[in-house]
Amino acid sequence: MRLSSWMSSLRNYWRVDHERPQLVIAQYQAFSTKMPMMYLILIINSWALAYTYLDLAPLWLGLYFPAVLSVLCSVRLLFWWRNRHLVPTPVAAAQALRRTNLLVAPIALSFSLWSIMLFPYGNAYAQAHVAFYMGITVICCIFCLMYLRSAALTGALIVNGIFTVFFLSTHIPVFVAAALNVVLVTIGMLVIVNSHYEDFTRLVEAQLRTAVLSDENLQLANVDSLTQIPNRRKFFAQLNEICARAHGAQQRFAVAILDLDGFKAVNDLYGHSHGDRLLEQVGQRLLAACRDPALHLARLGGDEFALIIDRDLSDAALQEIGQQLCHTLRPAFVLDKAVVQIAASVGVATFPDMAADAATLYEHADYALYQGKRERRGTVTLFSEHDKAQIRRKSNIEQALRLADFERELSVFFQPIVRLGDGQVIAFEALARWHSTVKGAVSPVEFIPAAERMGIINQLSVILLRKALAAAASWPAQIRLSFNLSANDINSSEGMAEIIKLIRESGFCPSRLDLEITETALLQDLEKTRQLIHSLRQLGCGITLDDFGTGYASLSHLHALPLTRIKIDKSFVADIGQDAVSLKIVKSLLALTLDMDLACVVEGLETPQHLAVLRELGAVYGQGYLYARPMAADDVAPWLAQRAARVQAG
Question: What's the pTM?
């Protein structure tokens, strides 16, 4: 067994390791740069020796024989010189190395025998040149061949074996000593060559492992681990690259952002494991729908996906691609314990007509998606010139907000809340108004969201609440004040602390104050919202859930929060006389609030017909243009007086 193992190890020294293709290629590349030098050394050293024997040896041996060898070496030198920078295939590299293994023996034998054949014709100096030639040339060749260990070993054993046997047989002390010295040098060189080859092999393998690890890291860095499609990082890298190319070539392309409608409900109802399984299946369907090389799909995070459409297509064609994606996701998804159905909304923006750079293109596609989800979920929305104008207007409003003097420019208007049975005013809702010195009157629909985006809404809320409390202090004691809080106010401990402090220091009785919050505010952090609302209730304030029915609050939220009142959104009232669905919704909401012992205010009363229908349904409180439009603080007292007179007269 030991002999067999030893023989197997020995055979490994004389073969090309084709089982490790990267090593073979590295050997070839390192080896190919040394081979031209080796052949050049052989040619120069051989002609130096031939010159020494030119007048001593026969012409065929001193001239023709080295000429033939030089031609063969020149052919190989040119081959390696031309291919010294080549990156071959593993097969081509292995073939070239095997060819060298086959050639090294006849070449070594040819040059060795030629020099030995010259020896008898020379004098002592010429014979010493033969010994020097064989010794020094083989050393140079061995070091040139060291990246192919088998070739180096073959050359060393043939040349130095012939050298040692021949010069020992001369019995000349100088040559015998040289032969023994060559034996020692050969052993040392072979140890060095073997050690160098092992180090070289380990280095190549280490580089290969590093390259594999680098590829794995690159894969992890650019591929979404859940869906196995490109991730956000890869998406933006591709987007920047395509955008730079398209900018130079003035080409048009598009970005589409897709968001799942109903995904949160799946997560809430079945858990995150089912949500992850759903995302996996969504990714698979989208990949199958994006086989076109011009479509680059990525998952941005959560339930949001993106698509780069790297082709100049018309708006109609882009709309069709978006609709196909939506259609792809409409069939039901079969999860482990449930069958769920979702939809998708898509926003699309084009370069360069709708955006001049990658970042703006993405933002505009996201804006189109947001608009689509707000107005028509489950459809495709293309970013348009109108959207551009809207963004410019929002930007102008934000700029004006940065320059505004809120104490001077903000004011509060008031709209009455009336008891429908007898027409008595029970409260006024405070409504924000902003008259900018730069832009004039700006609607709350525009500047409130802008202030929320800028993170300054709490600053506005404090100023508006202080002005509202000051105005309400002069009202009759039975009339309450209703004030809207932003989601940012509710979900900020610092902001809420400032509002509570203001209420306490105002002198206005907290039990006359109702604070209105939206369903959106509830859903950001339900537990935190519950705690803050509880603090307001302990203070004595009432809590109203505004625009109920338009958001995503569930009945469990109503039970979890200490609410005192609910407002039914005006969108359900507008067509209540003609729309049976609206009528049923309002009727159900009124019944729900009655069962939960909550007061209910119906917004949007504008006509006597609205009033009649709502009275018939059992509504108790209402608010709308039928009674009054929002009025300035100074107009409240005169309006109340006129209202009391009309009620008394009526």
Answer: 0.60
